[in-house]
């Protein structure tokens, strides 16, 4: 992906401003401390005031018309502080699906999302329970893990036969609320003959299948971006630790074995960043290329990404396992990211199958 010097300068300004804001207002804390001190509604309003939820909205729909790359930059910075607020669907997925649909079901909610009043969560089908299916105007089945579903005002439900946008408060569903290993909240939703109003339908038939495939790849892109940000912060913190911690009268960073391990982790982080660049560009291109890029990034995250953060724990020794130190939480964040929206083995199988 080639970007002009002017565009790259604007990218850097966006990244730097987002990093300053998040590090000042939402610095990393141990998950229990984050939940105790957090105010989700206030956080959402702050992010809306920054214009983040209008970024990906097309200009013709009243937004800023930013490309996917800039949205992924924001998600990387959110990952650096391991932000709990589930912003990915509202920031990236919903605006792009609205742009690709002829239905006003999503477009009519984008102004509310930009103001911080509407929050979306992506709800996809599970391969372990009854698949999500819309037939005769009714929704049945069990979802996969839906991060942020409890906080969302609207659910983007990807089901066989239809893509719909349901008012969460008005939609009867059996909810199983869970706490993921990285501290974030998620839900499993079960629908039993839930009516889907015509005005909630985003797309049906072939159009629904096309948007569902796009939603899946957007979700992977956002998840990989968040994980890359967490990994970069973990490597930065580990590097500082190794420079300050002394053993046998020397900084740990001076030992060649430690340097080799950290060099490997750094190279794998850069490899993941390169794959995310490819995926960001592919999101606006051919669906086949987009699917290949999404699968490649997810496979790399689930293998090399986890290996990179594992080495950071290794070189920090017992400190890396302390609850008060962030690197163990980075590992949990990446473990969660590696499991959401298909494991590395799942994507490798489909990539090999063509």
Automatic annotation (TrEMBL):
Keyword Oxidoreductase: yes
Cofactors: FAD
Keywords of the record: FAD, Flavoprotein, Oxidoreductase
Keyword Lipoprotein: no
InterPro entries found in the cross-reference section: AcylCo_DH-like_C (IPR036250), AcylCo_DH/oxidase_C (IPR009075), AcylCoA_DH/ox_N (IPR013786), AcylCoA_DH/ox_N_sf (IPR037069), AcylCoA_DH/oxidase_NM_dom_sf (IPR009100)
Residue span(s) of domain Acyl-CoA dehydrogenase/oxidase C-terminal: 222-353
Domain Acyl-CoA dehydrogenase/oxidase N-terminal, first and last residues per copy: 10-90
Record Pfam families: Acyl-CoA_dh_1, Acyl-CoA_dh_N
N-terminal signal peptide: none
Assigned protein family: Belongs to the acyl-CoA dehydrogenase family.
Protein name: Acyl-CoA dehydrogenase
């Amino acid at each position: 992906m080639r970007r002009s010097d002017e565009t790259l300068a604007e990218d850097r300004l966006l990244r730097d401003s987002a990093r300053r804001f998040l590090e000042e207002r939402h610095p990393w804390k141990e998950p229990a401390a984050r939940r105790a001190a957090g105010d989700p509604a206030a956080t959402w309003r702050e992010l809306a005031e920054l214009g983040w939820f209008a970024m990906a909205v097309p200009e013709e729909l009243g937004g800023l018309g930013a490309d996917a790359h800039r949205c992924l930059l924001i998600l990387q910075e959110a990952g650096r502080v391991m932000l709990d607020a589930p912003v990915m669907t509202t920031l990236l997925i919903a605006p792009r699906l609205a742009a690709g649909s002829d239905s006003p079901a999503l477009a009519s909610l984008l102004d509310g999302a930009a103001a911080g009043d509407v929050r979306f969560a992506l709800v996809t089908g599970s391969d372990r329970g009854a698949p999500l299916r819309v037939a005769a105007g009714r929704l049945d089945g069990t979802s996969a893990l839906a991060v942020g579903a409890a906080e969302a005002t609207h659910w983007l439900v990807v089901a066989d036969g239809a893509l719909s946008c349901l008012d969460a408060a008005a939609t009867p569903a059996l909810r199983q609320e869970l706490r993921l290993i990285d501290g974030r909240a998620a839900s499993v939703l079960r629908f039993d003959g839930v009516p889907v109003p015509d005005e909630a339908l985003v797309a049906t038939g072939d159009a629904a299948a096309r948007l569902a495939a796009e939603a899946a790849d957007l979700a992977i892109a956002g998840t990989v971006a968040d994980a890359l940000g967490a990994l970069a912060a973990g490597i930065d913190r580990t590097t500082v630790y190794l420079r300050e911690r002394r053993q046998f009268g020397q900084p740990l960073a001076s030992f060649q074995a430690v340097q080799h391990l950290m060099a490997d982790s750094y190279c794998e982080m850069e490899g993941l960043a390169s794959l995310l660049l490819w995926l960001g560009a592919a999101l606006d291109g051919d669906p086949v290329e987009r699917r290949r890029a999404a699968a490649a990034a997810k496979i790399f995250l689930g293998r090399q990404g986890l290996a990179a953060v594992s080495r950071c724990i290794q070189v920090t020794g017992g400190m890396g396992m302390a609850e008060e130190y962030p690197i163990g939480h980075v590992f949990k964040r990446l473990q969660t990211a590696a499991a959401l929206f298909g494991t590395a083995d799942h994507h490798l199988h489909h990539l090999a199958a063509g």
